[in-house]
Amino acid sequence: MGVLVLSHTYIIDLNREKLRALAQLSPGLEVVVGVPRRWQPGGVQNRLIVSEPVVEGNFRVQPLSHLSQNNQGLLTFGPDLVQLLRQFRPQVIQVEQGARALAYAQTITLNRLLGLRAKNVFFTWWNLPYQLKFPISALEAYNLRHTHGLVVGNQDGADILRHGPSGPGVDHGRSPGSYQGPYRVMPQLGIDETLFRPRPQPALAEALSIPSDAFVVGYCGRFVAEKGLLTLCDALAALGHLPQPWVWLLVGRGDLQATVQARADGLGIGDRLRWVTDIPHDQVPSYINLMDTLVLPSETTDTFKTLTSRGWKEQFGHVLIEAMACAVPVIGSDSGEIPHVIDQAGLVFPEGNASALADRLRLVIENPEQRQALAAAGYHRAMGRYTNRALAKQLLAFYEEIGVAP
To answer: Which fold does the domain 202-385 belong to in CATH?
Structure first.
């Protein structure tokens, strides 16, 4: 089976582990990853990534010429993509740029013109209802009409593409629920269990002035309003008397840091905060392993995207599975995909409800046996569903489901 995957996501070598694992599942599998030759992540000036070719047995990375080096929606590939398709002749072409990607329309068209008869698959994270106008509506309709399989990062995204948007006056430029083909819900990237694994960090705790008997409530991610940090701050302040001291460890970066610190100071818990900012991703596992529980209190800002407003709700919550892999119990709000990620392997509370979050925190702080049970359940869920190899197996099973012979 030949699989061609196209996406700017895989310019980063660490992000390719799922596809490396896919190539290792069978000697008859060959995986080629097409990436832009040059990419400016997030449009950040002075940060340009130049891709290099990689050959590792039946896994290889092929840099391709392209239009646009910082806008994934406008990304299209040059004539060397045609040459690659003619030589490789894949059975699956998977474009991980979303439902309205020009690159996906490009590969659909080339697939037809070159007579490849490959299955067209795309990946999307988008999980909010939206409104489209011509010609974008026509582009999405063309892409969906020729899709054999959908891989989506969350259940909300699958529901929107299969059943149409909710809300009055919404027009996708197509009939609601126009995509009725097979789909699989799974994240784009898995976890590396050699990095994210249980490892005590006593020296790091001492360096951060965390007492040895303190319970560490952790957060890891962006310091922004939609991540619910102010709700978590209020919940911590409401804990009252507990059998052991606690600290709040915040790992990440963002503009809300000063606001959170001021809120904590006003509530009388400012001295319990520990800030860790601007660390490389390979150091994140060490800080997660300091935590006795990790909380992701995300809050939906809107449920619909228009031309004048941009809503948000949690698309997945990758830090949850990283914490699970470290055997750290997780608590999450019910925003977006979080309840599906946690399932029965952690605790969920209504988003924005500080009182309910405080109850969940008391439960894990005051009940060591419950905490250990949640840690074990989360670890087994992460190892069974969310490692790169586990995702690769799910992806291969999906290809077989849409009619591609192994």
So the answer is: Rossmann fold (3.40.50)
Exposure on the CB side of residue 401, measured as CA atoms within 13 A: 15
Length of the chain: 406
Dihedral of the CA atoms 190, 192, 193, 198 (nearest 10)? -110
| pLDDT bracket for residue 314 (50, 70, 90) | very high
Give phi and psi for 366, each to the nearest 5. -90, -10
User: Looking up tokens 């470290």, which residue turns up?
Assistant: 326
Residue 46, exposed/middle/buried by CB under 10 A (0-12, 13-18, 19+)?
exposed
Q: How many CA atoms lie within 13 A of 177 on its CB side?
A: 2
Alpha carbons 140 and 101: distance in angstroms, whole number: 8
Cα of 30 vs its chain's centroid, Å: 25
Q: What is the DSSP string of 323-385?
A: HHHTT--EEEESSTTHHHHHTTSSEEE-TT-HHHHHHHHHHHHH-HHHHHHHHHHHHHHHHHH
pLDDT digits (tens, 9 = 90+) for 256-290: 999 999 999 999 999 999 999 989 989 999 999 99
Predicted local confidence at residue 305, as pLDDT: 52
- Report field, pTM of the whole predicted structure over 0.90: yes
Where along the chain do its domains lie?
2-189+387-401, 202-385
CA nearest neighbour of 237 among 358, 138, 324, 334: 358
Q: How far apart are CA 400 and CA 402, in angstroms?
A: 5
| Element at 35 (helix H, strand E) | strand 30-36
Neighbouring-strand partners of residue 347: 331
d(CA 373, CA 381): 12
How far is 8 from 2, CA to CA, in rounded Å?
Answer: 20
Handedness of CA 201, 204, 206, 209 (dihedral sign): negative
The yes-or-no answer to whether 2-189+387-401 and 202-385 have a common fold is yes
CATH code of 2-189+387-401, in short, is 3.40.50.2000
Q: What are phi and psi of 188, to 5 degrees?
A: -70, -35
Question: E-strand spans in 196-304?
Answer: 215-222, 246-253, 273-277, 293-296
Residue given tokens 């892409």 in the structure block: 143
Distance of CA 200 to the CA centre of its chain: 26
Any bridge partners for residue 332, and if so which? 296, 348
pLDDT tens digits, one per residue of 65-112: 999 877 888 899 999 999 999 999 999 999 999 999 999 999 999 999
Largest CA distance in the chain: 70
